[in-house]
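Page header: ASSEMBLY MODEL / two components / 717 residues total.
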Amino acid sequence: MININNLRFAWQKEPIISIDALSIEQGQHLFIEGPSGSGKSTLLNLLGGVITPQSGDVEILGQSLNQMSSSQKDSFRANHIGFIFQQFNLIPYLSVLENITLPCTFSPDRKQKALSHSGSLQKEAIRLLSALGINDTKLIQRSVNELSVGQQQRVAAARAMLGSPDIIIADEPTSALDNDHRQAFIKILFEECEKENITLIFVSHDATLKHHFSHHMNLQELNQVSNKEAL
Amino acid sequence: MAILSLAFKSLLNRKLTFFITLFSIAISVTLLLGVQTLKTETNSSFMKSISGTDLIIGSRGASSQLLLSSVFHIGNTPNTIKYSTYKKISQSPAVEWAVPISMGDSHKGYTVMATDLTFYDYFSFANKQHLSVERGAIDDDMFAVVIGSEVAEKLNYKIGDQVIVTHGGGEIEGHHHDNIPFYISAILAPSFTAIDQTLIISLEAMEAMHTDNHGHFGALPGEQILPSDNHQDHDAHQHHDEIAHEEHADHDAHQHHDEVDHEKHADHDAHQHHDEVAHEEHAEHSHQDTQDQRIARLLKIKPEKINAIFIGLTSPQAILGMQSYVNNYQAEPLSAIIPAVALQELWQFFSLAEVALNIVTAFVVLVGLLGMLSIILMSLNERRREMAILRSVGARPSHIFGLIIGEAGFVCFAGILLGVALLYLLLFTLQAPLASYYGFYLEINMLTSNDLFILAIIQLSALIIAFIPGWLIYKYSLSDGMSIKF
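Prediction written out in full:
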């Protein structure tokens, strides 16, 4: 599903990522533990094809990102990967519905899949939101600024899931939530990913979340650059 | 398309800065187009000052001076054309008509022009329109005066009112020709030319006022020189108000002045434009000419010299030949100008001011666009998060670039539309006051192709200027990727 080989990335001649091998299976729920500064966001940018490594390769769904042009990588990301970030995931001037359906603007594939699911984008957005525990259908017309942080993160999750991408990459999606909401959010995310057979990569510095996941790894151990620094 | 709708929503999210930018562009567009409109309208109103006249003849001198004095009544040329020369030129076979013009006096700051009745038949302006009478009728009486619309309106004159002419331009109080009062026989309709600010009298009357170097005619045989006619003490008359003038005019019969007195004076036998009431009341006073007027009527002196001659030729082919004939006229030094050509030449003098105005307005537009640039640049930092989110859902850096360009393009386009709307609002509001207070008729037209070209340039400049923030955000989005930076 995802294979990383001899991946090296340096920014302004400062090595940041050096991973010899990493393999993620389809449908896996992988927890990557990494404190800030361990190269987390750089790795996510490499997986998303937003930045290009100096050497080595990232292969997703059997396709090598290195062999794609940057606009092909952008389309590939739009079609196959959904992202959830820490906080402020949403575009403030768009409504909840517009935020959820934003990937359709850039990926006709995901739009097609979403339509085949529910018939209309709005129905699909409502379906995903209710699966994520938001049952208030009037909410989708509202401004995202009126939502609580917990609701915002669920809207972000709905956006990442819309149109069934193959992979969801979540970068500290629960750090803004309190403990109860955190547990509930992870539970719902798991359920939905399992249902849609989505590979979930969950990155966090919070080791207490580790026990939810079947697979986990430590980025500090994996990334030889931060190894060296630790030594 | 989706990117443009995003750009639009993003703009609406920042309403305050959006409207400030919008208005600064709109106002600069209004100013720019307004200056263009004013320029064209001034030019066209300038070019419309005279038409149908093939040549203007004056004493030898600068053509612009002759044009200014004879058509715009600005400044003076010496009245040195002999009347006999006028007679001779008017008899040339190529000349269809010739109208003599004499100037030099004023009335309350308005030019007094002396001519003969042919002026009304031949003088035309704009698209060969002739002067038309609004009230009263043109009278061949020697002491009738026809006044322009602005003179009538500003001085609140009506038909039959009496007018005293002052020697000189009127800025400095000159000698009042109060021995020869005029009565208003006709008020002209507005022509939006210098004629609106002019009083037109007969050449004979002009001559009568100036005979004997501003002295006065003597008495007719059998008459005494009346004290009130004999203004030896000029100083005492320097600051007469109107009533005082009328008193002088009124020496013979009237002891008691009342309001209708104005009409009484206007009431001489030759003319027909008196108020009916006045006519009935004062039927027994036929007409009270002053002593000088009576003499002048008898003498009917033709002027010796005039300032200018307006000429119409039998065919346009004759213009150049006639011009060189006049320029080489042996009996006295004359020059002839072709009005259309001279107007064009004179307009060239203003071209420098025109260029300066253009530069200033271009800079105003530039300032408006720079305002837009700085507002977009300031928004970039807070929008890096937005860009990272868009990148994560699959937006390309070129989409992000397009977002900024689209935003600038939209603001500028809306600014242009608003600016054009403001311009027409302004033109429609100003049209009536400009015509009534400044005698400037502002014609409201569609935007010219030149205006549209300017607007296209502004729109294009906005897009080009937006390349600066566009390029910056492109760079940010490449280096930030999906990482949200604060």
